[in-house]
Amino acid sequence: MSNPIQTILQPFLFNDSQPRCGLPSAAYTDNEFWKMECHSVFFNNWVFIGFAHELEKAGDVVPISLAGHNLVMMRNERGDIRVFHNACRHRCLQLVMEKTNVGRLLRCPYHAWAYSLDGELKASPHFGGTNRHNVDGFETTHNGLVPVRSHIWHDWIFANISGDAPPFEVYAEPLIQRLENIVDWNRVECIGTLNFGEIEANWKFIMENFIEPYHVQFVHSSTTKQPLSDHYTIIDGKCLGSGVDLDSEVGTHGQLAVSSRYLALYPNFIVGLYLPDQLGVYLNIPTGAQTLQQSRKLYTTEGQRLAEAEIEGLKDLWWHVHKEDHEMVERLQAGRTSLVAQQGGVLSPVWEDSVRAFQDLVAHDVSRHYNHYRH
Ligand code: FES
Ligand SMILES: [Fe+2]
Question: Among 281, 288, 250, 271, which residue's Cα sits nearest to residue 35?
Answer without folding.
Answer: 288
